Each structure stands twice: as C-alpha cells, then as structure tokens.
Amino acid sequence: MPKRKKTPEEMLEKAKELVGKWSKEIPYQYPVEHEPIYRYCDMVDDENPLFLDPEYAAKTKHGGVILPPFAAFGIMMPGFQEIMMPRMPRTPGPFVINMSQEYEWLRPVKVGDRLSLMSRVADIFVKATKIDPKAWWIVLEFLYKNQRGEDVLLVRNLALSHRSPQQVAEEEQVATE
To answer: 117 lies in which domain range?
Structure first.
C-alpha cells in the first residue's frame, strides 16, 4: 500500500518543531581577508579608507580594516547553503521565493576575524497568496559570531513557499471526494 501523502497542515505541525532551535555552530575555514574586501570595494566603486587603507583604519576606533556592510553577502556567505538548507523545513510546495532579507550589524567584522555561523527557523505561518491559499511564510535567522564568541551579524530572511496552481487544484479535488 502506498504511503499516504501528508497534508499541508500535518507538515506545518512537524515544521513548527524546528521553530526557535539553533543549529550547531559551524566555523568558517578561513579568517576574513583584506583582498576580497578590496575587490568588493573596487567593484562597487567604494573608496572608503576604513575598508581599503590599513594604516588609516588602524588609527580609527576599529583598530583595523573592517568589512563593508553590504559586502557581507559575497564575502561572508561561504557555507550559507550548507547551513540553510538543512534548517529549511519540508514544505507542501516545491517553489521557494526569497521575499526579503534584513541585516542587523551588532559589531564590526575586522580583517583577521574568524567567523562561525548558526541558523534557526524563527517563525512559520500560513498566509494565502493568489496562487496558493495555503502558502507558507518562513522566517529564517542566521547568526554570525567572531572568534571571541561575540555576535557580529544577525540576518533575517523571509521565504515564501507555495504550490503550483495544478497542485492546489488536485488537493481541492481530493478534499471534495
């Protein structure tokens, strides 16, 4: 006998078990390096000496070159997929859209810092869209720490998972039978 497919409601109950539980902390293999910061600044035409000039940056309150805030996605994301996907709950729909991302900088990240990353599902809720009346909205959080265990960056990501119109119609048909 084939295994019965779980309903979106049953899947949601299972997924809610993940809410609030942090993953293990995964350390990055390499420290933050100046070269990727330099390349990023060159690419976006940012000439801020705090990001580019080690002598200047050493004389500031930061004591060295720091990571530009918007460079985080390109420079700090190695390992992001490895930590995000295992935390993403199984959803009824195969389509996932990144709706928004919010960065909260808690401390500057300096060249030489050794970072680690943890993640969690912060919230899951169902809210209808035009395509799927049972679309899932998932809030994921990613917390970066430095080598001293200090929180340096919290990233909040809102993802939308939905089913295709055909999948919605098939479920409605099964429910009316």
So the answer is: 8-31+87-176
